[in-house]
Write a structure and sequence with these properties.
Mycobact_SerProt_Inhib_Rv3364c; 45% helix; 5-stranded antiparallel beta sheet; Dynein regulation protein LC7; alpha+beta; single chain; transmembrane helix; 135 residues
């Protein structure tokens, strides 16, 4: 495990423990690769990260329809039976995702996510991968 991932893991734990009803916290790259996680098994975190890549792409497509927008997604919140899903831009090419139970305080979650992104946003940036890195 890299030093960066170790540092992010404890920060994600802090977010999860400061907001009751938080289930999973994941940091992912824009192409859907899990960078760090808390509260989820690796397979679950990988599936959520992959789904987030599609979701942020769809949100960006919708955002590009706004006349004064820049086409970038900042925050997506999905309410579903049993809970909420949050996806927030967290640096260049990186995102913070949270899955929470139904009783979560949505305002507190948004505030804690923004605080975390502000504190460690530069560490959450994921540079684009080159062809050599994918081989």
């Amino acid at each position: 495990m890299s030093q960066l991932q170790t540092n992010m893991d404890w920060m994600l734990k802090d977010l999860a423990e400061s907001v009751p009803q938080t289930r999973h916290v994941i940091v992912l790259s824009a192409d859907g690769l899990r960078m760090a996680q808390y509260g989820a098994q690796t397979d679950t975190a990988d599936r959520l990260a992959a789904a987030c890549a599609g979701l942020q792409s769809l949100a960006g497509a919708v955002a590009s329809e706004l006349p004064n927008g820049d086409g970038r997604m900042r925050l997506v919140v999905i309410e579903m039976d049993g809970g909420f899903f949050y996806l927030m831009a967290a640096g260049a090419g990186a995102y913070l995702a949270v899955l929470a139970d139904e009783g979560v305080d949505a305002g507190l979650m948004g505030q804690r996510m923004r605080d975390l992104v502000a504190r460690i946003g530069e560490h959450l940036s994921s540079p684009p991968r080159s062809d050599r890195q994918t081989a």
